[in-house]
Amino acid sequence: MDIKEKLQEMEERIIKLEMNVPKTFPPVKPLGYKDKKRILVSGGAGFVGSHLVDRLMMDGHSVTVVDNFFTGSRKNIEQWIGHENFEIINHDIINPLFIEVDQIYHLASPASPPHYMLNPIKTLKTNILGTINMLGLAKRVKARFLISSTSELYGDPEIHPQSEDYWGNVNPIGPRACYDEGKRAAEAICYAYVRKENIEVRVARIFNTYGPRMHINDGRVVSNFIIQAIENLPITIYGSGKQTRSFQYVSDLVEGLVALMNGNYSLPVNLGNPDEYTIEKFATLIKEFVGSSSPIVFKEGLEDDPKQRKPDITRAKNYLNWSPKVSLQDGLQKTVNYFKKEIQMSKTGLRS
Ligand SMILES: NC(=O)c1ccc[n+]([C@@H]2O[C@H](COP(=O)([O-])OP(=O)(O)OC[C@H]3O[C@@H](n4cnc5c(N)ncnc54)[C@H](O)[C@@H]3O)[C@@H](O)[C@H]2O)c1
């Protein structure tokens, strides 16, 4: 029996054993009926959504995840399956949804370039029709609504750092337009519902976020660099490497999303970490952090790749009392450990 077969047999035995043992869940705060909210998280099986679900569940709320599993996965939320406060609906948000909720965190949308470019029409539909459907639901049940918008809305910015007053510099017909313009339209739709239907809306403009549960093949810079470094493969930089990015750890983002949802501020708010790195410096840093022998190689730049990215978080500080807390060192440690485990699992055939 080779190692793969042995592991498979062990996994089957563990599954059988687990079926006989009552499942245990992470601890959940007891909440009275006045404080306990029914919360919908669209895209809750994805990277950010699943961390948000953890937080809301542990806070004692009832959480319903709506996801079509395009980039999300059941394993991201398996810790809650079977819990009395948790429900999951396999549903594509380009179709209307009818349920009763108090708050909606609308996160459903592919987020990484290879995913959103795979089917640009579907990306536009998800961001436009999907957002209309989620807002229609918010209107019907009078729920407060938060949308995960993006720093991509600023395009290739001429203003640095980017504050929320900046209207952006987006190529409306380029390969990234399906996402950038989809999110811009989604924001416009939100504020149309505010003006016309009096919906309570919150808009989070999220900057690059990283952490465990990132998709292993999502082609984003953090996951690419870490995987290449772990595997001692060439670390690929597209373009000169002088372009800058800022990276926030996912738990900081979740704190910001919850503070925004439950606060009184209704204009867009940047949520990101203002520590700025050139991509070249970031590649070197990850290489050293992992202790990798990977060479760093440069390839032709990507179309419409922004030259600089750094959030101005004055608004989040002033109105939400929020700023990122997790150091790059701590965040990377957790993320590298996660990717090491994922790579090992995929090599043993236990995960694809
Ligand atoms: N991660 C980041 O760095 C980042 C940065 C800016 C904005 N955002 C935004 O945050 C949100 C979550 O991003 P993420 O990184 O967790 O991405 P992700 O791909 O891991 O999660 C997105 C989730 O939405 C689901 N989904 C996609 N289309 C759907 C549809 N039509 N119907 C139902 N479900 C659908 C996917 O299956 C997945 O579970 C997205 O809206 C994204 O635009 C993320």
From TrEMBL:
Give the pathway. Nucleotide-sugar biosynthesis; UDP-alpha-D-xylose biosynthesis; UDP-alpha-D-xylose from UDP-alpha-D-glucuronate: step 1/1
Give the protein's cofactors: NAD(+)
First-tier enzyme category under EC: lyase
EC number from the UniProt entry: 4.1.1.35
- The record places domain NAD(P)-binding at 40-335
Recorded hits in CDD domains, A to Z, give: UGD_SDR_e
Q: What protein family does this chain belong to? A: Belongs to the NAD(P)-dependent epimerase/dehydratase family. UDP-glucuronic acid decarboxylase subfamily.
The name on file for this protein is UDP-glucuronate decarboxylase
Q: Give the organism the record lists.
A: Limulus polyphemus (Atlantic horseshoe crab)
- The gene it comes from is LOC106467147
